[in-house]
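Extended Data, panel c. Modelled sequence:
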Amino acid sequence: MTTELFETACGWLRMGIATIPVWTNQSAVTFPIVEKKPAVSTWREYQPGGRLPTEHELRAWFGSCRPGQGLAVVTGWRGLVVLDFDDLTVWNRWTQWATAVARSYTVMTPRPGAHVYLFVDEPVRNSPFYIDDRHVGDVRGCGGYVVAPPSVRADGAYLPLHADGGLLRVARLADVLPEAWLRPPPFVRPLSKQGGGGVGDDPPTVASNVRPGPGFDPLHRVKAAVRACDLLPDGWRPSGNGYGLARCPLHDDQHPSLLINLATGDVKCAAGCAGGRWLDSIGLYQRMAGVTCKQAVADLAARLP
């Protein structure tokens, strides 16, 4: 497996695309990990606008046996975009719509789901997509990465399905996803924030300290109207004592580890995402979409009624 990981990483490097090591299998190690999280602390150095890893770095990452680690492809390089389908039902529906590109390089994921690799000429950011207001997958573009073959998780392997067609190229993201799928559902639940961004001594994000003011600009509108728990793709359930639980969207959460403060709507991942800090809607969206705070405010404000 180690030789295969290294050779695969070198193959992506020859295409001008970065790869990084990620944790993929908790059962293979004796210490706690967050699956699908980078196994290097400086992975953003290898995003587009940064630099490609050297072969020496790839050998250090993948050339020796490191239990629990796999390989991730950094999206955005050369316009690389991956359509991440949460389940095969939605992927099958998409293949009937996008027949011209459905045979681009595709990987079956352990969920089971599907990753479809494409080159897109226009710049593409990370974003979710929806069917009937239901989150069904994500677009991985600039600022993102996906776990790739030959990585193995405890629940299965990442297996290539369509490799013969190569990576096809399109001009626009709208050429490969119905525009209705890219249109987020509106937010309709108002938020009346009281107090800080969480409970106890945990600090909220900086934006949590901002309250609606006289100007009611986009930041204040988002703070007043959108709770972090409203952004959770799989919903949440109450757990008592003023809290709720949900699957964390920032890692592959098989057992709900996201704590929700029902009084504020803020969230905190018990597995350590975002350093275990409480996040408001802006802080959570930043990390889900891989964007700046300013862009997160703009995106969320655009989705308000």
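The domain at 206-302 is CATH 3.90.580.10 (DNA Primase; Chain A). This feature is highlighted in the accompanying rendering.
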